[in-house]
Amino acid sequence: MAALRYEFIKKCKQTGARLGRVHTPHGIFDTPAFMPVGTQATVKGMSPAELMEIDAQIILSNTYHLYMRPGNDLISEAGGLHRFMSWDRPILTDSGGFQVFSLSDLRNIKEEGVTFKSHIDGSKHMFTPELAIKIQNDLGSDIIMSFDECIPYPAEYDYAKKSLERTTRWAARCKEAHLNTDKQALFGIVQGGVYADLRQQSAKELVKLDFPGYSIGGLSVGEPAEDMYKMLECTVPLLPEDKPRYLMGVGSPDYLIEGAIRGIDMFDCVLPTRNGRNGTVMTSRGRIIVRDAKYARDFSPMDPECDCYACRNFTRAYIRHLIKAQEVLGIRLTTWHNLKFLLDLMKKVRQAIMEDRLGDFRNEFFSTYGYKL
User: Catalytic pick from 142, 265, 268, 303?
Assistant: First the structure.
């Protein structure tokens, strides 16, 4: 049996965005979906029970970080990542490519793979496509990623072309190395920078390899939003309609809505947890920095329209006090709210698709949140 099945439900008549479900060995998640990031086998500041309370249907963990610490062998010995972290819903793991390539001067790229130095202790390692798959097979995540190169922005055309061609060759090696095809779905990753012809070349080559799903990487890395949207518009139509499409590393509200309109099913980003730790929260009326002095005597919820645990029980003044006093509860509450906000946003997006009004929803949301239309 296939490890993954995409169930198409309907397209929005107003925008063409699609509603669906993804079936995995550890359950079903609705799409378009936002996936909270649990880099090191935990979503920072949140317990599995709390994630379930806010209805996180799938989370993401990181191959590079789990390989470095505590090690994929240990996690395999513990019974796999689901059992190790006590999470029985779907998990996606990235290949570690983004993290390895972000080490810049600490790594060296060859056809065989990438040699790099650990960010923890400086020890030398080599990631190959085969090793990236071996680690993810040991982790036992439901959805795994091919090893790819995430090029910086801007990148010269010739380098972007050579890089995507190597990424395609690596994708073929990943598929050959993947053992658990009945339990784990391997996605290919489209690259090509901000060059439309390269994105199309990458997509066509990966589709020929026939993966269970497809990711779009190398975007939201500093390029203008308009360039990202153009890359989606020239890439997504080339990907199979009966398989999920995942835009990697994207999590701001505008990108989530615009991505869904352009046919994306899955998103992930550290934005809600990172911003939460900085005292920044997303609200129905836009972003606020709750640790700012102007909230010292503000006894209203972070977002009066939100029903999360933090907004039901605590005020901006109290949460600001906790953050200024460096009490852990403060950043737990801001993180809790941010994650709930994005998960609720995706529920609203799905409902708008069902009702054929996602374009109207986008305009209303942008107006109230403070985005320019």
Answer: 268
DSSP 295: G
118, pLDDT greater than 90: no
SS3 of 91, please? strand
| 329 Cβ neighbours under 8 A, 6+ residues apart | 322
* Residue spans of alpha helices (H) in the chain: 48-53, 63-68, 72-77, 81-85, 97-101, 129-139, 157-177, 196-209, 225-235, 253-261, 271-277, 309-313, 316-324, 328-354, 358-369
Between CA 267 and CA 182 the distance in angstroms is: 24
Which token pair is 232? Answer: 């989606």
Residues 136-183: tens digit of each pLDDT: 999 999 999 999 998 989 999 999 999 999 999 999 999 999 999 999
pLDDT tens-place string over residues 323-365: 999 999 999 999 999 999 999 999 999 999 999 999 999 999 9
Mean pLDDT, rounded, of the chain: 96
94 in catalytic set: yes
What is the residue type of 150? Answer: C
Q: What is the mean pLDDT of residues 286-303?
A: 98
> Taking each helix axis from N to C terminus, what angle separates 157-177 and 196-209, rounded to the nearest 10 degrees?
10
Task: Choose among 26, 93, 89: nearest CA to 61.
Answer: 93
Question: Residue 34: enclosing H or E segment and its boundaries?
Answer: strand 33-36
Asked whether the whole model's pTM tops 0.90, one would answer yes
Tell me if 196 sits within 8 A of 234, measured CB to CB. yes
CA distance 333 to 342: 15
Contact 283, 341 (CB under 8 A): yes
Give the chain's end-to-end CA distance (angstroms, integer).
45
